[in-house]
Amino acid sequence: MKKGKFLTTAALALTLALAGCGNKEKEEKSVEAAEPSTTVTVYSAGPDGLAANIQEAFEQETGIKVEMFQGTTGKILSRLEAEKNNPIADVVVLASVASMDGLKEANQLQSYKEAKNADKMNAEWSDGDGYYYGYSASALGIVYNTKNAEVAPKEWADLAQSQWQNKINIPDPSLSGSAVDFLFGYTEADGAAWDTMAQWQSNGLQVNGANKEALDAVITGEKDVTIAGVDYMAYKAKASGEPVDIVYPASGTVVSPRAVGIMKEAKHVDAAQAYVDFLLSDEGQALVADAYLLPGNGEIAVKDRATLEEIPQLTVNWRGAEQKQIDVLTKFIELFR
């Protein structure tokens, strides 16, 4: 891998990475504080297209105008910090339940226990006191080029074998929050994880930009495999005819929830609650499924992708995970420096 491209401090890494989806978003739009009652201000971390589809459907159903800011989770957290003396956001949608839990612990969210369909959301992805709801999730897997790989790798440890030497990459966790989620969950659940990653390094693992850059290298055949590839991106690429597929190791992988919450200082609480209700509704959850994500409501069918029950999962406790993620990220940076 090329050296010198990692961030040098955990604090800066947190700003850029913690639990963002890692793919490039559409150009971010600045927003002004929304007008009372007829508008709601939403800060949303992708994926590209889903936020816009939800906005359009919500506006059509409710007549409430959405003022939208789209960016990675890290950029949204930075914006919230910059605006702490003059809060603008009513609703935040983050690609990381760990980061959302951090907002709760920092007393920046308000509870909405009465949210419609709250009881249908995955309890492990959501806050029991109603401060946030895991409305969707992605799983991290082994994404491979179907033309280059005669036999697909099946386990994380397989990628230390000589046949994959210099043919593997991983999204840079200083740019991809899902990669941070993977590192955290993998190292928490598997005592041999750090040894396995050291073997990947010895086998020529390249740290290859954010999620999209890592996947693009596999699509073009520059690399054969992406470790900790985001599944919804792989499924979307496959549906578009790209020569890629994904494997979830039988030993288990990380499912990374995405969450929605209402800011404590929200100026338009009724509209914010309506937005959360829509996101948790069957219609909103169907839009989630259309984006190849796993819906928070397990009753909503997915298509052309693995169901949650079909994915071998590592047990991950996301509560209070932010500092642990910083520690894991720092250790990874030191390993691959």
TrEMBL record:
It comes from the Bacteria. GO terms for molecular function: metal ion binding; thiamine binding; thiamine pyrophosphate binding. One of its GO terms (biological process) is thiamine transport. One of its GO terms (cellular component) is outer membrane-bounded periplasmic space. Residues 1-19 form the signal peptide. The keyword Iron applies. The keyword DNA repair does not apply. Fe cation binds at residue 232. Gene3D superfamilies: Periplasmic binding protein-like II. PANTHER family: ABC TRANSPORTER SUBSTRATE-BINDING PROTEIN (PTHR30006:SF2), THIAMINE-BINDING PERIPLASMIC PROTEIN-RELATED (PTHR30006). This is ABC transporter substrate-binding protein. It comes from Metasolibacillus meyeri.
